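Blinded run. Sample ID left blank on purpose so nobody reads anything into the name before looking at the predicted structure. Input follows.
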Amino acid sequence: MNDDAASNSTPPVMITNFVRPEIAPKCFGTDIDGTFLADDPEMYQRNLDAFAWAIKNGIDIFFCTGRGYDDAMRVLPPGLAEKLGFTGYPGVYYNGAAVYGRNGEVLTEALFRKDVLKHIMDRILEAKHERFQDMEGVEFIAKRALNDLTDLTPMGITKGSGIASVLEHLGRTPDQCAYMGDAANDIEAMHLVRHSFAVANATQAVKDAAKYTVHQTNENAAFRTVMEALYDVNQN
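Blinded prediction complete.
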């Protein structure tokens, strides 16, 4: 995609304080749950069409998710990835603990030491609670990924660190990247890139971290809204 692919005119989209950049982002990272996914088939198809447009037009679009690779790829309808030539690479998975390059090469693989894992499991068993409790120490951080799920990742490992690895691999800078998300595990990514978008259903902390807030929720094809705002999705 050429640098002049994005025009200076801003389409009538519902994004707070949005001004279309003179040069469209070369890279676009998206969270999946609560951001890219939509339960309504029609709304989700709008997102998928925009996703396909980005791939066909040379945008380095990638997943940045708490899911693992295989689980993330299952959100796409059967056969679509093959049709588009989308491999899921590059990609940021497990909240930055597994990061892959364009050809599937491992850029980051962050693992807990066995003694740290034992400490975590001992505390969970001692507490006898269904949910994790606060734990002292500096070896890991806990982040709320979904309403009923808390992820633990090694210190320093975030979606932001994962995107930084992907951008270095691609020879891109944070100024050339856009990102959108909804939850606390998206905040570091929001801080890293130049063009950050929070969906309407995002937490207030995420909206505060993002440069822009979309008026639509994930269930109203917010992903499509952002793509139309940044690129000429409707023109071909």
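Unblinding after everyone has recorded impressions. The longest strand covers residues 140-146.
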